From TrEMBL:
UniProt keyword Iron present: yes
Short name of one Pfam family: HGLS
Reported cofactor(s): Fe(2+)
Family as reported in the entry's similarity comment: Belongs to the 2-oxoadipate dioxygenase/decarboxylase family.
Naturally occurring in which organism (per UniProt): Blastopirellula marina
Keyword Iron found: yes
Name of the protein in its database record: 2-oxoadipate dioxygenase/decarboxylase
GO MF terms, alphabetically ordered: dioxygenase activity
Enzyme Commission number(s): 1.13.11.93
Superkingdom in the source lineage: Bacteria
Keyword annotations: Dioxygenase, Iron, Oxidoreductase
Length: 267
């Protein structure tokens, strides 16, 4: 499958489970904007069957190369980003939860998910259209959430794109991320204000903001429950002293962007 087709499929799933996506695209296209993606992000668990390398496979086969790695000690996460020589293709940011650093009841709950993966490496994510490839109880969701909201999000949603990110540099009707944030807030969207709405600065060559994930109804083995779903992100990049655009990510900012799916942000 071509990379563009894969991205289109990921977008279709993302917009279906995240009503903000179409609303924000419409808000901008009504102003005459075209939308370019800066990056798409996925979450996963550190495991040979579904870890970063496995999720990156379809992208690497399509010409993506590793661009950087990031550590999040407190959240027990590790991440890498991948980029393509075609600058119009979005970067891919994939993080994984370091399972070995959690308690055995926590790891047992994760194993109840992993045990449902198809045998012999037949897992096809993130090509799967629905994202989640396992059944889970709400009790396990709550158990995981106590130690890691990242883990409970994964249990509920799996391998759909966690967020798409609009590349703000390519917008013509807003001249700063602040202006875009103001437009979003005026239009009724809640932004993740953890550490301030704008994460990063021109000094680190990247500014980012994101919406608060919308709450969506998800099926659990014991019936549907409402849980935080996906969010939308906005990124403005700045050129490095050598004149080349900064293509990486900033761990200190990303740490707060992760919290866009935290329940504490729900109004
Ligand atoms: C990823 C959060 C980090 C960024 O652009 O720094 C991130 C996530 O929530 O899975 O996307
Ligand atoms: Ni992101």
């Amino acid at each position: 499958m071509s990379i563009q087709l894969l991205i289109n499929q990921l977008w279709d799933t993302y917009r279906r489970i995240n009503p903000q996506a179409d609303q924000i695209v419409k808000l901008l296209t009504d102003r005459g904007e075209g939308i370019q993606n800066d990056h798409i992000a996925f979450r996963t668990f550190q495991d040979p069957q579904i870890g970063i390398e496995r999720l990156a496979k379809p992208f690497v086969e399509g010409g993506y190369v590793e661009g950087g790695e990031y550590h999040f000690e407190e959240k027990k996460l590790y991440a890498k980003h991948f980029q393509h020589r075609d600058p119009t293709l979005p970067k891919i940011f994939i993080s994984e939860l370091i399972l070995g650093e959690f308690s055995s009841p926590f790891q047992d709950a994760i194993n109840r998910l992993l045990d449902q993966l198809p045998p012999n490496g037949e897992f096809h994510g993130p090509l799967c259209t629905e994202g989640r490839v396992w059944e889970t109880t709400f009790a396990d969701y709550e158990l995981l959430k106590k130690d890691s909201e990242y883990a409970s999000w994964m249990a509920a949603h799996g391998f759909c794109a966690n967020h798409f990110t609009i590349y703000v540099n390519e917008l013509s009707t807003v001249s700063s991320l602040q202006e875009l944030n103001d437009l979003l807030i005026t239009s009724g969207f809640a932004l993740n204000q953890e550490g301030g709405a704008i994460k990063g600065s021109p000094e680190v060559f990247l500014e980012q903001s994101s919406t608060v994930a919308s709450v969506v109804e998800v099926p659990f083995s014991d019936g549907p429950h409402k849980v935080p779903g996906c969010y939308y992100e906005f990124a403005r990049r700045y050129p490095l002293p050598n004149g080349k655009m900064f293509e990486g990510f900033v761990a200190k900012s990303a740490d707060k962007i992760f919290e866009s799916t935290d329940e504490k942000l729900q109004r």
